[in-house]
Amino acid sequence: MANTTERQRRGRLSRKLRGGRPGGRSTIAPYLFLLPFFLIYAAFLIYPVLAALRLSFYESSGFGGDTFTGLANYARLAQDSRYLEALKNTTLYALASVFILSPLALLVAVAIRSFVVPTAAFKSFYRIVFFLPFITSFVVIALMFNLVFNNDFGLLNNALSALGLPTLDWLRDERVALLAIILVGIWTFLGINALYFLAGLQNIPEEVIEAAAVDGANRLQTFWRVTLPLLRPVILFVVVQATIFSYQIFEIPFLLTAGGPSDATLTLAIYLYEVGFREFDRGYASAIGYSMAIIAVVLAAAQLLAARRFDR
Amino acid sequence: MGRGLSRRDFLRAGGGALVGAYALGLAGCGGEQGGGSGGNTLEFWAFDEGRANLGRAALKTDAWKEAHGDVKVNFRIFPYEQMHDKLLTSLVSGKGAPDIADVEISRFSNFIKGDELPFLDLTDRIGGDIDDVYKPAATDPWTWQGKIYGVGNELNTCVLAYRKDLMEDAGVTTPFETWDDVVAAGQEISTADRKMFALHDLAFGDHYMLSQSAGTAYFDDGGNYIGDNEQSVEAMQYLHDMVYELDIADIAPVVASDNWYPPQYRAAFKAGRFAALFGPPWHLSFLLSDVPDQLGKWTVQKLPSGLGDGLPTANFGGTGQCITTQSENADAAYDLVRIANLTTEGVVADFEARTAYPAYKPAYEDPALQQSQEYFGGQKLGQIYSSLATGLPQFNQSPVWGQATEALNREVITPVMQDKMDAQTALTDLRATIEGMKQG
To answer: Which of A62, A257, A274 sits opposite B114 (nearest CB)?
Structure first.
């Protein structure tokens, strides 16, 4: 009797966890497993995002109370010359990511997949070599490129000298400092973007390429008329994510140039950090953060819309 | 019969959790203050192992053992930026701050923005001990509106240091009386591979020291910007001219991540590329650690005259120990600060550990600080620094000090030292930037 009651109790508990239906599909348990994630997500992401939104409408600097100022922090953005300089630098970096990094990544992917790299072993080797910078710590990358760009004994200046070209003080000359940051960005992110393209190339059916060849298309024609159009979804993905991540670039310029010299490499994320922690102006820093999010969303949406229109 | 959890229920519960988390967060921001370790424990944050050892040395003294032998002190060392950022956020949020924190001179300005300062006013606790310290180094940088919020131990008396062996070989008379003498010597010993000075184009320190020696500062005692006055412009122009007109200096080999004396700067001195420098004791200390083979070849003297008022020294750098308002054991915290900074036993321990010349006057009677320094040709640096310390100019803090010096680097030092702008225009234009900064 007691055993029967115990079995019934366990059965009820088991049914509860499965959603109350004997033999039915489980409904509570998956949600219970998901709940910790959502709680942590709410506390450490949603809450800060909402709190920052609130803060962006307040004058909140130093130690003391906050004062509601409406859109004043957002209005200030348009008149802040440092913000505009950071916006310009970040946009140039993003343009380089889209128009230099992305085509280069496609070129690398095509080269790895093509006859240029003959054996499977070499293909794997190059895939790893190009991907390694992406998994290298930004601090290590910064230390390494500090040596590469060194004015006196740097690798780059030595190479330029050997070629009889003029040398440059890459990280301290405001005319070329942003170019140096872009070069490091390309070096770092080329591999991951090439990997996206490689995945896209692998998904193109061989029969389509063979059909083009049968129809008399040469390699270049096949690439332009067959491969590239079929890669359009991957290209769109690479361009959108490159744009979004470019507007968040922080570590490389912060570690290499700290946004200098004279703001030549100041990015929006570095400026946000400076305003938040060096100037201790939390309200304005929040507004800068939201401006970055709005820019990224608008640009990504524009790219998606443009792609959709192009598809039609 | 139990009902299954529908997606709608889950979303509802999730929404509730979200609101709960938000409410919890808000409560966290507006809740009662609480920090430190409380009870018999103190939390001490530092950004440098050597500075933490200053606190650790205090724990070994009889004075500490007698008064607080049962108090445990947790020392936590973070990277420089991270420590100050964490300190700011924990003090703003009202929770999680340490009892004692090291606050670097240029980061203190952030903590005096607003009406409610997050550090304890130590003025009364220091009391008569104030007469025993060189105030511009010990308390001025952590003083705001007449109240002292921190105590520093490092006497940052700036001097001129140079390679005496090179000067003697070139037949140059030393010590230098005026900057003209320095320039003449520089022209004598400078070659394509060697210059007198390595001057900074990413950091304001050189200008800060020379403008103080010329008799001025960046802010007056009312917190107003005065960095565009005649003495300041003269100092900036002089630095520029040493590189581009007089040809006795090169731009210092530094990087953005260490814009003062990174390894390549030290290596350049080791390679004999530079024959002189001016700076405080902490700057000179790299010679002993990184350039040991030049032992006995260097000498130090007061700053020469001939630039503005020609004061014999200047003040540069410093870190102070501050006690946060969240501390629940302020008496023990202050005793630690006092023993570390305001007793001979404490500061001599620090001197012996990292050759930090103290701002505490009585310590200079201790034999350790009267010893001659073999590296500097047998000179007694303790005597030199302490005698110059009486002439240290007052330091005027400002809520925008940190921001202003960042702007100075950006808008004056880099363009002028890279020969892209003249000193007068750059320093005058900086006024608008600094006056546009928020004070609170």
So the answer is: A62
Q: List the CATH number of the domain containing B215.
A: 3.40.190.10
Interface A–B counts its CB contacts (< 8 A) at: 124
Inspect the interface and report whether the beta carbons of A42 and B117 lie closer than 8 Å. no
Complex ipTM: 0.84
Cα distance between residue A176 and residue A186, in whole Å: 15
Q: How many CB atoms lie within 10 A of CB A124?
A: 12
Is any Cβ of chain B less than 8 angstroms from the Cβ of A224? no
Instruction: Check B114 against A278: CB less than 8 A apart.
Output: no
Q: Is residue B10 part of a domain?
A: no
Structural domains of chain A in order of their starting residue, each with its CATH number: 80-311 (1.10.3720.10)
pLDDT along chain A (312 residues), means of 10: 60 57 67 91 91 94 87 95 97 96 94 79 84 91 93 90 93 94 96 93 90 89 91 92 94 94 96 93 95 93 85 70
Distance from CA of A267 to the nearest CA of B (A): 15
Residue whose tokens read 């591979």: B193
pTM of the predicted protein model: 0.86
Closest CA to B399 of B427, B348, B440, B346: B440
Domain ranges, residue B299: 159-314+400-435
Task: Establish if B27 belongs to a structural domain.
Answer: no
Q: How many domains does chain B have?
A: 2
Q: Do B220 and B226 form a contact (C-beta atoms < 8 A)?
A: yes
Helix (H, G, I), strand (E, B) or coil at A153: coil
- Residues 114 to 153 of B: which have CB under 8 A from any A CB? 114-118
Same domain, B262 and B344: no
